[in-house]
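Much of the work behind modern protein science is quiet bookkeeping, done one molecule at a time. The protein below has been through that process, and both of its lines are reproduced in full.
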Amino acid sequence: MPKIVDHDEQRRIIARAAVRWIATHGLETLSQRNVAALSGRSKGNVQHYFPDKAALMFGALRHVSGEREERERADLTSDAVSDPLGSLASRLYAVLPTDADRAEAWRVRLSLYVYADRDAEMQAYLADHADAILVRGTDEVRTAQAAGQVRADLDPRLTFRRLSAAVSGIAVAALANGGALSADEQREMLAEVLKSITA
């Protein structure tokens, strides 16, 4: 009986290996050969799913973006209806590079953002991804305002963009100089920003 290959799983394994390679060795040395060795696959197998380096980078970007969404969903509080600000805060805290996996994802994302500036397909993907996050986040701020948890005088869209910018700034500061900010310090900084919007 022929062996059934789970193509989605193969793609995930290879993309995950590309993420690990970029996080450890940088974007410049990323190659199908290196990723094949790291993932335990043949170079031909990697080429089947990711025909060139650009496709491999795009696969890594999709992988870290998907992991971010899964992490946010997993870290959501179960009482989001009764505590919309708490739910929003949980999602924001989940993105901070407070452990090795999250720090790795941030290093890869930042490397790929620079490359994406020259790649129209990756730019379009990032724009769509950012728009979806902004729409969801704006709705969460609006819900928290309706519950009396967030100041009513704030523009929900601008407020979520400010929160996102704060998370990005904290993440970059945390990764700079070999991890200058501890997990607790990152959370404290974000808590201060959240206080500024609280009703």
Summary: The two ends are 64 Å apart (CA to CA). The domain at 7-195 is CATH 1.10.357.10 (Tetracycline Repressor; domain 2).
